[in-house]
Specification:
single chain, about 325 residues, alpha/beta, Rossmann fold, 8-stranded mixed beta sheet, disordered N terminus
Length: about 325
């Protein structure tokens, strides 16, 4: 009986370990990524706002939109593009636009165009690790990406030397922005916009596991988290937006579609309520699915972000920014 129990526990342990390795690899190291996925993402960018890649290509051909590279703490080369405001001598600030899971700097060109052409902001828009032209051995789900974003913040300021910077992320990029918001940031980083970000990596993985592989017990996440820590240096439990938002004192706009069945709308309230210090706004986009709020309501999306930025500027001017 003891032998049977021992071998049963051993088999269960091995099964859990193998399952954890499979899940970590499946979620964080999809086979098609990076440069091999550029063409798909060009098409996606144009589906979200027609003419986006032609706009991008034209500015790049003129030498206005440029590539820039950094080396992260692990020695990997990471990539971004940056473009000055439409009227550089009258620029209103700098925006850093952060893409979502499986995408790259091209996908959210609609936000780059909004900030540059409509708001007259300089814009830097990076490829997160394992995406686009950036190196890296796995997707970091926004958690370790926050460290790279802090490097981009410094570089963007060195280039454009503004005293007003906003970070705007969508989906995983929104989580990355929220994670970054809890760090000790320069004063010129003034505010944040998060669009349909998940509240925690563990919670999002648990939801996806239940929907895709309902026969697999959620305990497998513990093994996957351990594997991720050994291979990539972080546990799922660390990547919790509530913990970061509790340390954020700077203004934030929270956006989410109420028809989002990928990152469920209840993530919005969890994130919004977790930010207990400083100014905050919320917009629920009626009928919008995941990362679709702009595509469904481009004028209202633009107006809400614009008004949020104006509110932040007014609060800075009258000294009420942290009241």
């Amino acid at each position: 009986m003891k032998k049977l129990l021992f071998f049963g526990l051993l088999a269960l342990s091995l099964s859990s370990c193998l399952g954890g390795k499979f899940m970590a690899s499946y979620a964080l190291q999809p086979p098609v990524h990076g440069v091999a996925d550029i063409e798909r993402t060009r098409q996606k960018a144009d589906s979200l706002l027609p003419g986006s890649t032609a706009w991008y290509d034209d500015l790049k051909a003129q030498g206005i939109l440029k590539d820039v590279w950094l080396t992260d703490d692990e020695g990997d080369k990471i990539h971004a593009c940056h473009v000055p405001a439409a009227r550089p001598d009258q620029a209103n600030g700098t925006a850093i636009v952060v893409h979502g899971y499986g995408d790259n700097h091209l996908v959210f060109l609609y936000l780059v165009r909004m900030y540059r052409d409509q708001f007259n902001y300089n814009v830097l828009f990076p490829d997160l690790q394992y995406h686009g032209y950036s190196e890296g051995d796995a997707i970091q789900m926004g958690w370790l990406d926050r460290l790279d974003i802090m490097k981009w913040i410094e570089l963007a300021h060195d280039i454009y030397k503004d005293d007003f910077m906003v970070l705007h992320g969508v989906s995983m990029g929104a989580a990355a922005v929220m994670f970054t918001s809890g760090e000790d940031l320069p004063d010129y980083v003034r505010c944040f916009v998060e669009d349909c970000g998940y509240n925690s990596v563990r919670g999002q993985f648990k939801k996806e596991l239940k929907e895709t592989y309902s026969f697999i017990p959620s305990d497998i996440l513990n093994s996957a988290s351990i594997v991720t820590h050994k291979k990539h240096g972080w546990y799922f439990s660390e990547a919790d937006c509530s913990k970061a938002l509790a340390k954020c004192y700077k203004p934030m706009l929270f956006i989410h579609g109420d028809a989002d069945d990928y990152v469920l709308p209840d993530n919005l309230l969890k994130n919004y309520n977790a930010k207990t210090h400083g100014y905050k706004e919320m917009w629920v986009a009626e009928g919008a699915v995941h990362a679709n709020s702009y595509a469904k309501y481009p004028e209202e999306y633009t107006r809400r972000v614009c008004n949020f930025l104006k509110t932040v500027r007014n609060m800075i001017e009258d000294g009420s920014i942290y009241d």
